[in-house]
Every structure is written in C-alpha cells, then in structure tokens.
Amino acid sequence: MKIPGALLTALLAVGLALPVSASARADAAADPAAWTGPLSTRGRYIVDANGNRFKLKSANWHGASGTYNGSGDITDPANHHAGELARQTPLGLDRVSIDTVIDGLADLGLNSVRLPFSNAMVHDTAPVPDLPANPDLRGKTPLQVYDRVVERLTARGFAVVLNNHTTTSRWCCGLDGNERWNTAQSEQQWQEDWLFMARRYAANKRVVGADLYNEVRRNALDDPNWGWGNDKDWQRATQQVADRILTEANRDLLIIVEGINWTGLPVDGFPHGRPTLEPARTLSHTLVDSGKLVYSAHFYGYTGPNHSGASGVGETTDPRYRDLSPQELRDVLHRQAFFISADTGKHYTAPLWISEFGEGRGTTDPASRAWFTNFVDYLIQADADFAYWPAVGFHTGGSGDGWSLLAWDTVGRRIDVLDGTDWRGPAWQRLVSAPARTGLVQPTTQWSMLNLDHADFQASRTVRALPDWNSGARKGVCPDGQRLAGLAHTGNRGLCTGPVPVPTALAAVRDETYVDTDWASGYTKVQCPQDHAVVGYSVTGAAFSAALCGKSPTPLGRTTSRTVWFDRADARPAGEPGGDFASGKLKGQCAPGEYVAGIAYTGRIGSSRTPDALLCRA
C-alpha cells in the first residue's frame, strides 16, 4: 500500500508503527526453521550437527555491553549513546517484553543473534532497576537478565553468539579503556571470564559461539599486533583462550576471531590503517578442535581501509568506504576480509562472519546510501554470514538514533526496517531472502599451520594428555585427525592436512633407527617406523630435533617413495594446496595422497640443522 506523504508525516509524528507489505511479512514472520546444534565448520561454511549449512543471518542485540558515554550521571539517559539507557541489559526491555523483541527479530527473517556483554556486567551483583515491560525480571542482576534473554532466544529457535564486546560497560569504540582484551583488566581475568561464560551455557546447544573480543585497536600508546608473541599479540591471545574454552569449558562452541580494527596514529603522514583479517593470510589459527574456527570483520561506510571514521580530530584525507566505487569497494573488501572464505583449500580458509555493518534510517547522504546498497549486494554475491548493527533502538515520533532494525517508543509502539518508510527496507529484504547454499555440506580437506615462533604449538588433544615427548624443545603437533604435510626450511613453521584417522599409537624418533633406504645420502635422516606418519616435530632454537610419528590404524604404503628437497628452493605441489604456511621461507610439501615418512637435515659446517628434505610416500 502506498501511503500519501501527508498521512505518512502524520503517522510518524505520533509514532505509530506503519504497515508492511503482506509478502514481506509472510516471508519472515515465523521463528527460525528447525536446526540441530551444536554448530561446526566445513571449509568455508558453518554447518549444524547434521552437516547442513547454517548461514548466520544475525543482528546485534546490544545493551548488556554498556551504553554509558563515560561522563556525568550514569542514571541520566542523556549520558548514554543516543539517550538509550540500557542498564547493562539487552536494550529495550524497559519498553517491551523479551518475546516482543524476539517477535520482531523473527519478522525480519533472522535466525541468530550476536549478544554483546561486558566483563563488568558479568561481575555486577547489583539488581537492575525495574524494567516495567518485564516485571518478572525484577530483582535480577544484569547477568541473570542476560540468562533470561539467552533462554528465550534459544527456546524460540535462534542461535546465540556470546560476544565479549567491552571490558567496562561503556559505549564502544574510542579511547575508552576497552581498546584491547587486556587494557582495563589482566589477560588472565579475560580468560577466566570466558571460561565462566562458556561453562554457564554449555548445556544449551543453541548457544553456538564465543566471539572473543570486539574491535581490538590502538590505545593512546600502543598498537595491537598479530604474531609478535607479546602481551599485545591478538593472534596469540585468541589462540590461547580458544584452546582453553574448547578443552576446559565447552567444546561445542564456534570460536569467532575478529581481525584487528585499527593500528597507528590517524594523522596524515603517519602510518595508520585497518589491518582487519589480512594478517591471517600468513599466520592463521589452528585450534585444538578442527572445524570450530570462524573469522569475523566489521565494515561501516563512514570508516575506510585507512580512515578511522573520525570527523575533525583524528580525521585524515584517506578515503572512506563510501567514497569507493563499487569495484574499488569489492577489491578492498576481498583483500581485507572476504578472501578468508573465497580462497578455499588454504590454511586460513574458514567461514567469514561480517558481524557488524549498518547505516542510519535517517541517512540522506547519497554516498552512504549507495555504500549500503553496494555492501549488501556484495554480501549476497559472496553468500556471506552477517550480523547487522544494531537490532534494537529507541524512537520518539519516528525519530531517534535511527540505525536499528527495530525501534520502540516509550509506550511500546514499533517502527522497523520493513515498515514501508525506511529506505533500507528493499536492500534488507533482498539480503535475508537471497539465494544461498543450503543442505548437506560434504566434509572437505582440512589445512592447518603450525607456528613454533614463540612456544610449543601442540594442537592435539591426544598429545596434550601424554607426558612431554621431547623435554626442552619447542614442539608442534597437528590436530587429531590431521598429519604433517609440509615443513619450512627455516622459521619452524609446518603445514598439516586431513582428515585422516587418529593414530593408535605415537612414537618420538630422534635418530636413524627406522631408516630403510638411503633416501637423503649424506644427511641425517629421521624416519618413522612402518605404518607411521609424521604428525609433529620439535626444534631446539632453529635446529630440528625430533619427529613425532603416529601409527595408522590401517597399513600405509611403502613401495612408492620420493625425496622432496627444499634447502635451495620451494618444493611444493602445483596450485599450492594449503596456501603459504611460511611466508618468505623455503618450503617442502608432499603431494595430496602422500604422507610424510621422514625428515632429513645436516649438521655440516654452515648449516643450522634445519629441515632440508622430506620423505614422501604414497
């Protein structure tokens, strides 16, 4: 129904919800379709417990992470973002019931919710002020309210992703003490809070993910990094907390790692930018459980690949995303994030979740509107998982912050993105109803990298439960169900592949006891016993020191062998299966259908006893 302009103005003036086309509502009125948890991954797709693709069509229901701007009376709505006082609870519960919000999420065609929280919320034992629309929440702490929201969402069929959005309950994301996971608290506390939250919902298989921290960025003095091994290393921190969550708290959760949001000073002439997920191309995560890693990224039109999004102080002359042509935008998005799911068969291949993007209902700027439309088009083209920011907001007579998909006024009257008056509506309807991969996703070849840059990297549950197999050395072991496929000549990196059967026994080999032929004449050869394949290796400094061999439950071939030398040049199969697992280093790799049966090195003068050759057997 087309609403005359005068009537539309009058309706907005009194804050009435506007009608939506019958077809739009019919497509999105029911709770999410049936699915079975927990979720896992197969290649670039998230799948449910039956192996069927589960595309995250999500929105962010924020508020429990904090809306306070950081100054003034915390009880005064004027001191909260857009006047939206949330009381450390999911926004809107003072205006409408939990199920009324969930009804709205279902109307919009969503199947999942990113549910932000702050560490301060987790520890706050004071009851929240009365939430008039939800009298049954009277006297509950913020965490208990969060519990109830999780309970109702999952009972209605929604998947819930827990998101550690902030440390303190302040609105994100400037110099606010929430820049890094350990800016306003210790890393140990961050890890312990994650174990607490993962255990808290472990029995609920529709609580599907742990989104580890939001928009990691520079504080006043320091940049985060990816791979330096120090206390600002986001790759190291996420690797460690992820393995603790999976081994100590809840092995069912997807582990969601967002790229780095910002490094450098936003001043023309100084290095600065938005690394996002680009570092994962050369240093990815290998979790103790394969099939649990999801990468994520955020994009807004007012920011840019080298633009902080600021206006005035902190603004540079770099282009914002909304300044880019459609093709330039696609190229930048692919480089920064979308390569993760587009490049299949690599060590970094994983589902990509765009866990924040959005634009304002009241936006009139043509460039911003065009950006939103172009970005939605790219999400559809890439069949990407997504989460809009935010799900819920406030309005007064149809006006307010305006970025939300759903908004309620003080007496519970709703406007939404599909109400017929929102310019974003057609793009949103196109996004949630777009054709997408569905049905069974077959298991695929897995690739994982081992990184001994700074410490042990034993990604095997089996090996972790055993005594130290080479004391004093740094050890790398493939995840259970994978075996070694390649090694770097220097740099101590390795590449694993699978799936293969989990070994029935393990043997650490340091010498030539099992050598059955001189496959690397003049070199020291460390070879596995019969029917064993290399699943791990150890180094002392830069020098190779031992191989860990896993016994196959079925016989392995011995008659077809070849030596792959990589001491002077790369020796890898055509097409580089698995990707570059040791950027800038020489690498050797067995071909698909082969296994690593041995590793050779030399101790001659001028050598550092680093790996020089692999024995590959069919």
From TrEMBL:
Residues 95-389 form the Glycoside hydrolase family domain. It holds the Pfam family Cellulase. The keyword NAD does not apply. Keywords: Glycosidase, Hydrolase, Signal. Residues 1-26 form the signal peptide. Gene3D superfamilies: Glycosidases. SUPFAM superfamilies: (Trans)glycosidases (SSF51445). The keyword Ribosomal protein does not apply. InterPro entries: GH, Glyco_hydro_5, Glyco_hydro_5_CS. One of its GO terms (biological process) is polysaccharide catabolic process. One of its GO terms (molecular function) is hydrolase activity, hydrolyzing O-glycosyl compounds. It comes from the Bacteria. PANTHER family: CELLULASE FAMILY PROTEIN (AFU_ORTHOLOGUE AFUA_5G14560). Belongs to the glycosyl hydrolase 5 (cellulase A) family. This is Glycoside hydrolase. The lineage of its organism: Bacteria, Bacillati, Actinomycetota, Actinomycetes, Pseudonocardiales.
